[in-house]
């Protein structure tokens, strides 16, 4: 069982930055691909970024490439971080941290992620 807790959302002006963190409680030695998704009102939950279990490989949605950066720290805190720069009003959404037991790859489909956090609101004003 994996528990994920996000933090770091809030209100920011367009062009600003925010950093989201996801603290994962996992069994020692287990491996998970971790991802961030977001869901705006009236829209489907969409992929934002993912990182492999060892942090060596990352993937991004085209809409956030070159603006967002995902990383992870596999020390005792098991934290995944999403650094968001040059934020736009269209980035406004609830952001969810997720973990996939399919640790051998990077996944953009939410169906491949088993565990989810409660979500944190990000609002970008124009």
Give an account of the 3D structure.
With 126 residues, the chain is an all-beta fold. The protein has no helices and eleven strands. The strands form two sheets. Strands 2, 4, 5, 6, 9, 10 and 11 form a seven-stranded mixed sheet that branches. A four-stranded antiparallel sheet has the order 1-3-8-7, with no helix packed on it. It is globular and about 45 Å long. The mean pLDDT is 94.
Keywords:
single chain; mainly beta; seven-stranded mixed beta sheet; 48% strand
Terminus-to-terminus distance: 40 Å
Radius of gyration: 14 Å
Number of helices: 0
Q: Note the main sheet.
A: 7 strands, mixed
The whole-number mean of residue pLDDT values reads 94
The share of residues in helices is under 10%
Count the E strands: 11
SSE-based structural type: mainly beta
Low-confidence stretches: none
What overall geometry do the principal axes of the alpha carbons give?
globular
Provide the succession of SSEs. EEEEEEEEEEE
| Percent of residues in β-strands | over 45%
Provide a brief overview of the structure.
The protein is mainly beta and 126 residues long. The protein is built from no helices and eleven strands.
List the helices and strands and how they pair.
Blueprint: E1 3-7, E2 10-13, E3 18-25, E4 33-39, E5 46-51, E6 58-60, E7 68-73, E8 79-84, E9 93-100, E10 115-116, E11 120-125
Parallel strand pairs: 2-11
Antiparallel strand pairs: 1-3, 3-8, 4-5, 4-9, 5-6, 7-8, 9-10, 9-11
């Amino acid at each position: 069982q994996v528990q994920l807790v996000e933090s770091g959302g809030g209100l920011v002006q367009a062009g600003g930055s925010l950093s989201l963190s996801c603290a994962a409680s996992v069994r020692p030695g287990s491996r998970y691909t971790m991802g961030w998704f977001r869901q705006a009102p009236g829209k489907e939950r969409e992929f934002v970024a993912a990182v492999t279990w060892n942090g060596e490989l990352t993937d991004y949605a085209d809409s956030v490439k070159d603006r967002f950066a995902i990383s992870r720290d596999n020390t005792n805190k098991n934290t995944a971080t999403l650094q968001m720069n040059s934020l736009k009003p269209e980035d406004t959404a609830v952001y969810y941290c997720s973990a996939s037991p399919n640790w051998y790859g990077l996944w953009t489909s939410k169906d491949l992620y088993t565990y989810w956090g409660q979500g944190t609101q990000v609002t970008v004003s124009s």
